[in-house]
Predict the structure.
Amino acid sequence: MFTGIVAAVGKITSVQTQGAGSEDGVRLEIDAADLPMGDVALGDSISLNGACMTVTGKSDTAFTVDVSRESLNCTVGLDAVGEVNLEKALTLAERLGGHLVSGHVDGLGLVTKFEPVGESWELVIQASRDLAKYFAYKGSIVVNGVSLTVNRVEDTADACLFSINLIPHTIQVTTLRHLAVGVQVNLEVDMIARYVERMLSVSNAGNLQS
């Protein structure tokens, strides 16, 4: 479990394919930057741009993870050298500064607007219609591992647009500062909304059968 509060911006420094086939995954080496590694053990979980990965090797300043082809197919930003948002798994002794985050990417979004508004930035993302039911005004969303608040939701015939306000601090301490129109991002919907949707769908199915 995570909070969506980015602890450091690291960098993927090496991407090594794990085989010769098109279905093989990759091994990533990540410069941990300002993320303390002293309490990280092999097998621990670290979120990379919102995707929960298992530490397979580590040093005082870096670590490695193995990413399956399935994970690569469902995410962006984990197949090339570049900066990534990092967060270690939540412990029960820490504050929940963002919201409960599983580190499982639900889908990809497309940036349709990223512009300054006063001292902040407005970020508008287009998501698929199947994720639209999970977005709500003032609800939570994770974008590339960052816990954010939805300010506006607009449903269209074939997609859903939601707007987020990014304060200067978020821009400064995460990779969201690199976003631009046309860039894809990893999305994780609110965990509570997901369970509510499941409970309602099962309840409705039962009512129809009775």
User: Anything to note?
Assistant: The chain has two domains: 8-88, 107-199. The longest helix spans residues 191-209. Residues 8-88 form a domain with the Elongation Factor Tu (Ef-tu); domain 3 fold (CATH 2.40.30.20).
